[in-house]
Amino acid sequence: MKSVELFVGGGGLAMGVSLAGFESLAVIEWDRWACDTIRENQKRGYPVVADWPLWEGDVREFDWSSIPEGIDLLAGGPPCQPFSMGGKHQAYGDKRDMFPATVEVVQALRPKSFIIENVKGLTRSSFANYYQYILLQLEFPEVTRRSRENWLDHLKRLQAEKTSGALHVSGLTYNVVPTLVNAADYGVPQKRERVFIVGFRSDLGVEWSFPKPTHGLDALLHSQWVTGEYWDRHGVSKRRRPTVPKRFEARIRKLASGSAHFEEKPWRTVRDALVDIPDPRQRKANMFLNHVFQDGAKVYPGHTGSPLDLPAKTLKAGDHGVPGGENMMVLENGDVRYFSVRESARLQTFPDGYVFHGFWTETMRQLGNAVPVALGRQVAASVAMRLAESELHKLANLRMRRFA
Questions:
Q1: What is the structure's pLDDT at 87?
Q2: Which residue blocks in 94-199 are alpha helix, DSSP H?
Q3: How confident is the model at residue 89 (pLDDT cuts 50, 70, 90)?
Q4: Do 251 and 324 touch, CB atoms closer than 8 A?
Q5: Which residue from 11, 27, 35, 166 has the fewest beta carbons nearer than 10 Å?
Q6: Using CA atoms, how far apart are residues 375 and 387, in angstroms rounded to an integer?
Q7: What pTM, to 2 d.p., does this model score?
Q8: Where in the chain is the domain with CATH 3.40.50.150?
């Protein structure tokens, strides 16, 4: 199966797509530091990215005639700053809004499917109309904006097209499924809420829903505070175990009162993710790539860091100035320190053999903007399965007609 990846950044979603079995025909990113990260891993012969056809530049300047029409998958995460909770919230008024460019690529390539990822802020009420506008453009990519037409008038025209149903018969349309997900529910050791917009070309007749969660909070609390299996596994004696978090007390009592059975595995915690990696201040820390201690972590109101025994807070694209202390960890003794780049990479489920290029600020920006590799792989694998089923169904119908 063939794919194209846009806005690749440090490579999280693109790596997940590759691990799901897709072959990249173009991997596009404009940021030099992120491109240097990919190039450095290619020089090192890192297998997942070794053959990526990397193109450094603006997606609007890429020669799309070099890519065959009807590829299997288009994937990417347009810059999130226009919609980020920590940004200026300018959306369509922000020059970094790349959703229009993404729709143009969909129109040009007519992919069988697409996966688009962005921040939870995209779904906030103040962006409601623009969010609907994005979804309708992806559903009807050939209904383009006219000269001198503002986006609100374009939105009205798209709404009219949807209610008429005419384009579903004759034009390029997609069945679009938007989903807000928490990465922790899919085995990522981080509470990272993101929007995934997945679409399949309507003529394929694909029925798809977002993969079911594989991990859950209740299973974690049960293993910690009912059976104690979590602490035993980590060798934490009863004397060293923290007190039960007050906000979970009622939930834990309920879990302890019955015979619990969980379909999901426990959420993965910071302790789970970093169990076999030494403190970056230790001498043996140099055995791990990008595992360097960064000084200066402090606690103050609203800036508290991530506890060891829950999934981390959402990593942010910043360093010392990240507002909620998201890039810090709270140690067993209550002290805090910054996650090293390697530890941050583990929280984003990048493999240890994948290196990040650049200074502290640049590497943390790449990681804070990334899609967790494991989550990207699960979504891309579910899309690949539906595309394969569609192709098999098509072949079966051809055989039936041949022998009819």
A1: 46
A2: 99-109, 128-139, 151-164, 167-170
A3: very low
A4: no
A5: 166
A6: 19
A7: 0.91
A8: 2-213+372-400
State how far the Cα of 369 lies from the Cα of 87, in Å rounded to an integer: 13
- Phi/psi region, residue 213 (left: phi>0; alpha: psi -120 to 50; beta: rest), is beta
Residues in contact with 366: Cβ distance below 8 Å, sequence separation at least 6, in sequence order: 9, 10, 33, 34, 37, 317, 356, 358
- Position 105 scores a pLDDT of 96
Give the E-state strand segments of 258-399 in sequence order. 265-266, 328-330, 336-338
CATH number for the segment(s) 2-213+372-400 = 3.40.50.150
pLDDT, one tens digit per residue, over 172-210 is 999 999 999 999 999 999 999 999 999 999 999 999 999
Tell me, what's the pLDDT at 349?
A: 98
- What is the residue-wise DSSP string for 8-33? -TTSHHHHHHHHTT-EEEEEEE--HH
E strand residue ranges, 250-347? 265-266, 328-330, 336-338
Let me know if 248 is exposed, middle or buried by CB neighbors in 10 A (0-12, 13-18, 19+): middle
Nearest CA to 339 out of 268, 279, 283 is that of: 279
- Residue 90 is predicted with a pLDDT of 45
Q: Which of 62, 87, 80, 75 is nearest to 11 (CA)?
A: 75
Other Cβ atoms less than 10 A from the Cβ of 93: the count is 10
Asked if residue 279 lies in contact with residue 273, where contact means CB atoms within 8 angstroms, the answer is: no
Helix 12-19 and helix 373-403, axial crossing angle in degrees, nearest 10: 40
Q: How far is CA 249 from the centre of its chain?
A: 31
Tell me which residue of 173, 204, 374 sits closest to 272, measured CA to CA: 374
Residue 403 has pLDDT above 80, yes or no: no
- pLDDT tens sequence across 92-128: 555 668 899 999 999 999 999 999 999 898 888 888 8
- Reported as a single tens digit per residue, the pLDDT across 314-373 is 998 865 556 556 789 999 999 999 999 999 999 999 999 999 998 888 999 999 999 999
Residue positions annotated with a catalytic role: 80
Alpha-carbon distances of 104 from 125, 149, 154, 209, rounded to whole Å: 26, 16, 15, 25
What are 102's two structure tokens? Answer: 């993404």
Q: What is the helix (H) or strand (E) element at residue 253, kind and residue range? A: helix 249-257
Q: Which carries the bigger pLDDT value, residue 324 or residue 394?
A: 394
Structure tokens at 12: 């999280």
pLDDT in the model for residue 366: 94
